[in-house]
Amino acid sequence: MTRPRAWFQSVSGDPERYPLNEVLYRDPKTGSLLEVVHDLDALRGRTPAAWMRLFDERYGRTSWPYGSGVWSKHEWVQPHVAKENVVSLYEGNTNLFWAERYGKQHLKLPDLWVKQCGTSHTGSFKDLGMTVLVSSVKQMIAEGKPIRAVACASTGDTSAALAAYGAAAGIPVVVLLPRGKITAAQLLQPMANGALVCALDTDFDGCMRVVQRLTEDSGIYLANSMNSLRVEGQKTISFEIVQQFDWEVPDWVLVPGGNLGNVSAIAKGFAEMKEVGLISKLPRLVCCQAERANPLYQAYQRAQGEGRDLEEGDFEPMVAGETLASAIRIGNPVSLPKAVRALVRSRGIVEQASEQELADAVARADRTGMFNCPHTGVALACLEKLVARGTIGADDRVVVISTAHGLKFTEFKAAYHEGRLPFEASLANRAVEMGSEPDEVIGEIHRALDARGAAGVPA
């Protein structure tokens, strides 16, 4: 087969091509976002069956770097990056969890699955994109590009991933965080990995403005999702889902949406597989936003009110409010154009969840064995609404993208179960204080179990 190749190209449709080893984030002529475009004819040089067989042969193996869920798709991700320049921490290959009890008991939805992207190295799906970006930077440095550091603005998970991969590669990292608006775990991760951590007195959008100015210096490389290299890693979520379903496509995929890079990436993965013939249809996407940070939902409602498809012109930026789903507290998402295109192409939907809805959804799912972050809670709450409305049917196969590990958000969970949130936590489960005398403790345990049984707990 012809050697796979890829390049940067504007999302606006301009045919000009730019090399992937250039320091570019936007089209120099139009200012539009760039995306990585693959030579699909070259990829068609291997049959769909042969690609499937190759990916299955590489799955979880130790042959460098194919054990990674991202780099097992090397030819579809960054074919120009040499193996010796790949920076991998064994990301991807995450569990596609059959949420049988939650789906059947709460939703009458037996074919519900949760893609546990938070079980990656730094505890979030951001690892998938960062392995590609940092590997690409290492390739550029090997080719003589004078890059002295990589920088990002972050609400937590992006900075953790960038710091870890930068540390593994030996590349200095600068992260800009909104002071007081991320969890302790998220703040400690980049500190532990040696990044230059800058806590700014602003929100994420303010951090983004600063980092865009900072990276006008070509020696400091931008690692935010407007850099389309990250999309190439994140799109492998789609590949993993269909591979784990023995190359079948689910009916629906629900994705928490903030900066909208992950929605765009997942759509791109499905679209490329369909173009090359690995799959025959696209799933419908749902972008799930927090009610207090919902600019895309508002745009979608405007379009729906006029009975037409969502358009980029429907969007109006907002100042995002305080939300438990801090990582998607974004009022002016960078990847808007790509997300709009993805949703239209997939006949997608945008839904929202309130603070109580997302917190209760997390608690309901946790009681069936999961341990979800609040952003996954947004997607689960939106799923509950769409099922209740009849938009998603009982026979549909549904995948919810879980974006981060619940252990990164223990403050949120503690506040819920201790009753410290500004709404009634109907599923709060507090510790029961007891003495130490065995007979007394045993009696209290039996009484507590009886009370739970009478109340229908666990529920």
Give the topology, please.
Layout: E1 6-10, E2 17-18, E3 34-38, H1 40-43, H2 48-58, H3 74-77, E4 96-98, H4 100-107, E5 112-116, H5 126-142, E6 149-153, H6 157-169, E7 173-178, H7 184-192, E8 196-200, H8 204-214, E9 220-222, H9 229-234, H10 236-244, E10 252-256, H11 261-276, E11 284-290, H12 295-305, H13 336-345, E12 349-353, H14 355-366, H15 374-389, E13 398-402, H16 410-417, H17 438-455
Parallel strand pairs: 5-13, 6-7, 6-9, 7-8, 10-11, 10-13, 11-12
Antiparallel strand pairs: 1-2, 1-3, 4-5
Q: What this model shows, in words?
A:
The protein has 459 residues and is an alpha/beta fold. The protein has a domain of 210 residues: Rossmann fold (3-Layer(aba) Sandwich). Helices cover 40% and strands 13% of the residues. The protein is built from 17 helices and 13 strands. A six-stranded mixed sheet has the order 4-5-13-10-11-12, sandwiched between helices. Helix 5 runs parallel beside helix 6 and helix 11 crosses helix 13.
Keywords:
459 residues, alpha/beta, 6-stranded mixed sheet, globular
**CATH fold descriptor of the domain at 96-123 and 231-412:** Rossmann fold
Number of helices: 17
Q: β content, as a range? A: 5-15%
Element-level helix/strand string: EEEHHHEHEHEHEHEHEHHEHEHHEHHEHH
Low-confidence stretches: none
Find the structural class using helix and strand composition: alpha/beta
Quick structural summary:
Helices cover 40% and strands 13% of the residues. The protein is α/β, with parallel strands linked by helices and 459 residues long.
